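Record format v2
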Amino acid sequence: MEISIMTALNQGLMWGILAIGVFVSFKVLDFADMTCEGSIAMGGAITAITLQAGLHPLLAVLFSLLGGAGAGLITGLLHTKLKIPPILSGILTMTALYSINLRIMQDRASITMLNVKTLTSGLTDALVGSGLPYKYGVQVSNMIIALIFVGLVIGVIYWFFGTEFGCTIRATGMNPKMCRAQGINTNTTIIVGLMISNALIALAGCLISQMQFNTTVSMGTGAIVIGLASIIIGEAMTGKKFSFWAKLAMLVVGSIIYRLVITLILMIPGFNTNDLKLLTAIIVAIALAIPAIKGGAKPLIQKFIGKKGGNENA
Amino acid sequence: MLKITGISKTFNQGTINEKVALNDLSITINDGDFITVIGGNGAGKSTLLNAICGTISVENGTIELDGKDITHLKEAKRAKYLGRVFQDPMMGTCADMSVEENLALAVRRGKQRTLKWGMPKKDREVYVEELAKLNLGLEERLSNKVGLLSGGQRQAITLLMATLNRPELLLLDEHTAALDPKTAEKVLALTKQIVESGNITTLMITHNMQDAITYGNRLIMMNAGKVIYDVSGEEKKNLTVKALLEKFEEIAPSVVTSDKMVLSAGTKSEEAQDNQNQDSAE
């Protein structure tokens, strides 16, 4: 029980980085970027190969960031230079990445990373050496590493979007016409924004695969929906006065809550992990439908409580 | 000095919707000019502005700014020299950003945008000082989201954003058309104040003939993608709405009876005189 809760927390933290990445493209840039599903798997693929080659795990992180940024660059170029609509640009890159990821993984659909040095292995060994049972040692070290990376990502993203250049990316998502009038090259800002978004998503893939000692070419399926679920949950808990870094932190909290909810549901007899994506889709659909449900239910509610007129401002 | 030589633009060329928006248009805008532009719907006023900004590319002709050919310069690059205010008050600012953030974006127009902090505290004093000049109390709302402000306030901020870095040319595209009459008057007065205090070369499209006469030192009338009337100095000062309408009728008789320009002057051509009196009374 406590192990599954700990796993959920760790998963939530790592997938929280993906949520921040999806947030950057979907919310900050207002660009519905589907590249995500390919770039997270790319992060996993790059990591598996790098670690199997015996290279330092931090190099796997670096290569994943670069790979993700490259994927974002392609989507950005497809959209800005070739004028392909955002969704289609992302789908094209995502589709291409499936083959590319298989190539990176040397034509294997799944790689298990046992007996390789990962970001957490050193820490795990130390913890186990100090007397902690292995199954806890793995989770605790995962959590420490995950917290460090989440903190770093929130810090860097907060700083970046506060800089002169970062501000132009935020403005591009809000009002591209105004940006061009203010001398901002919106093609550049869109491309850089997508590169950052996908670099983060690939980083999430890198960390997740290290944590699970395994990566598959299809690990990205449904990643966008998971990211959106985390964003929706996170934003629901975000107050108006929250500063930007707090909003980013709430995305990670959203991601953790999502994982906990899923974990709890899967504990109900009759459910198994294969139902995960279905449950995710249902959660997101419900969350997205809340405004419509509220609006649709209002006349009914009014009918029951016998109020006439109702609140016209609502 | 902006020198436009023989620019043309046709939309939907070769289709049934073909529309000549600019037809071999030439005009020289001298430094210090405050030009008002009038003309009916589809006369090419906005297209002219968009061509100057680089939002659309022209088919032939050249646009030179201070002797430098900017005909093929990208829109974002050109923005270095140009300040712009749009008709839609929502268009010129970022609603989800604070007043300060919007101004911080504008103050770097034409400059390299680096990884330095985007809203340095030392700039704040400048913003407060500039906002205070608008006399709208905005200097106390620096951290408010622009989306919370009224259309007039947003337009005033856009105006400030366009001129915070003194532009070579200020382009105003019916920037008071979407405002209520009182606010429009206020924003126009602000425009005059900013343009005169900074001695900014300005091109202002308006659909209000009286405004076109009242403001600026030069007036041009456009029709079918050409400048059909260009008047300045004393001659412009002595213009009346009636004389302007007659002029328009004389030059482009086919448009007058059906056109928005006529209607928005508050008049039909036969009633021009009565309304002109009314206009001047206002």
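Chain A has a mean pLDDT of 91.
The CA atoms of residues 239 and 308 of chain A lie 31 Å apart.
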